Amino acid sequence: SRAQLGFVISCVKNVMEQEGFSRQKRGYRNINDIEVNMSDPLFTKQWYLINTGQADGTPGLDLNVAEAWQLGYTGKGVTIAIMDDGIDYLHPDLASNYNADASYDFSSNDPFPFPRYTDDWFNSHGTRCAGEVSAAANNNICGVGVAYNSKVAGIRMLDQPFMTDIIEASSISHMPQIIDIYSASWGPTDDGKTVDGPRELTLQAMADGVNKGRGGKGSIYVWASGDGGSYDDCNCDGYASSMWTISINSAINDGRTALYDESCSSTLASTFSNGRKRNPEAGVATTDLYGNCTLRHSGTSAAAPEAAGVFALALEANPNLTWRDMQHLSVLTSKRNQLHDEVHQWRRNGVGLEFNHLFGYGVLDAGGMVKMAKEWKTVPERFHCVAGSIQEVHKIQSGNKLVLAITTEACQGKDNFVRYLEHVQTVVTVNASRRGDLNINMTSPMGTKSILLSRRPRDDDSKVGFDKWPFMTTHTWGEDPRGTWVLEVGFQGDEPQRGVLKEWTLMLHGTQSAPYIDQIVRDYQSKLAMSKKEELEEELDEAVERSLKSLLSKNN
Question: What EC number(s) does the entry state (predicted)?
Fold first, then answer.
């Protein structure tokens, strides 16, 4: 009726034509919006390079290579060696970047590291790793390498009935003035009951590499942390837990740890492997044998070459980086991003650096690393200090933790004084009725707890134990080592066990100056002070509110 219409009109205060505009979900990125245009057919499926949510992944969870590429860094002038089962160097996506002069076959003793043919393509491992690093860009073939203008060398050394110390040592020390980075996606058996590491010749080769390689700047060794999952601990792998290697773990495309990932305190950082869901495009896209491509590369095998590619970008940005500079850059620029795990939470060490027992200091950030590398000044000289040693026999029993302490001045007043930590080694000799049930933790003077050894349910050893085994942690990076270190040794498991600890020697490795750590500490303390101030203000507000309520109730 007219009366009703008049009532509606009288209620309308204002009429305004609405104009449509855009709103976007934060964190979501369309691959077409990123100014990286590649003609390679698998590029859009390489979610670990640029993650826009492909294959049910988490947008933004990637290596941030786009930023490094846009800054002009693509790995030019850097050679990465893939120590593996050979490389299909005739592959059209690898041939232009293949460095024949730096390649060798130590399995067959010839300069042609082509993989041995098998019906099941078992020897595709090295070719897949090579593509992750150095697959050429914009050639309409497969995908793109992290450092697509770098050179890749093939060192074939895995494909023989058994390994020898001399083959490993020869591979690790091959062409150290031409090869910049060595990528290794192998190690002792990941069966959850093996404790093994490099033998004498290989140890010497690695020591020579970091001291003499690259004109004295040091060869960079990148190691996959291992695929033994929760049954194993990568601190029982002497390659991944070495101070001379950069141990890399993997995350999947939604930020969780892969089911096969091993955890340990020696892991420095993480990259990516396949997704946990059975999405056919959730694997790592790369080159495959005989000119083919694959979407199914996976494991921490896939993680180490990605890291080698990121390090190649950093070396192009600053060719003067030493092997230790690369470790410092990894610690400082790796990001938590969206990595998470139900068991191992993110924590901060005594100087405020955030770390995780599974992921190390986080996922490598190529853009952040090249920007910091450009301005980076070589870290100060490294010193080693034996902080203390306990040689007495101590019994360990189920239900009772053995707690030992070493108080140290970190060689203060001596030439080898260590003020800022890099690596810390706990050299332990211990035997147990069941080695796999042993659990070892260590707490630094600044309160940082490192899990040096987790339970390994498949390890039934009752005879060998650990003989002067160097458990290593990177979690106290940058801390002041002076004070009391506490070691806790106990058993986990259903059955009662007993053991004997015969030695604990604490080895500190680090520098006497590290200006950037002081700044990190100042920033961290400032944030702590601010958060405490906010907590006090909240407590004050709550107290005032309680008082007001009390007064009101009395007045009523």
Answer: 3.4.21.94
pLDDT tens, position by position, 403-443: 999 999 999 999 999 999 999 999 999 999 999 999 999 99
**Which residues touch 156 (CB under 8 Å, ≥6 apart)?**
84, 85, 86, 87, 104, 105, 106, 107, 108, 113, 114, 115, 126
- What's the pLDDT tens digit per position in 72-85? 999 999 999 999 99
Specify whether the CB–CB gap between 82 and 89 falls below 8 A: no
**Residues near 357 by Cβ (< 8 Å), separated by ≥ 6?**
263, 264, 265, 344, 451, 475
Could you give the percent of the chain with pLDDT greater than 70?
A: 89
The label of the residue with tokens 């291992």 reads 226
pTM of the model: 0.90
Which residues are designated catalytic?
84, 125, 301
Q: Is 460:481 a contact under the CB 8 Å cutoff?
A: no
* Closest to 489 measured CA to CA, from 466, 508, 459: 466
Give CA–CA dist 227/230, Å, rounded: 9
The pLDDT of 501-523, averaged and rounded, is: 92
C-alpha to C-alpha distance for 556 and 550, rounded to whole angstroms: 10
The CATH number that domain 383-513 falls under is 2.60.120.260
- pLDDT at position 25 is 35
CA–CA dist 454, 445 (Å, integer): 22
Classify 39-374 by CATH class: alpha beta
**Does the pLDDT at position 22 exceed 50?**
no
Q: What is the pLDDT of residues 308-329, one digit of tens each?
A: 999 999 999 999 999 999 999 9
- Contact status, residue 214 vs residue 176, Cβ threshold 8 Å: yes
pLDDT of residue 551: 58
Burial class, 393, CB count within 10 angstroms (exposed 0-12 / middle 13-18 / buried 19+) = exposed
- Residues 459, 240, 175, CA angle at the centre, nearest 5°? 140
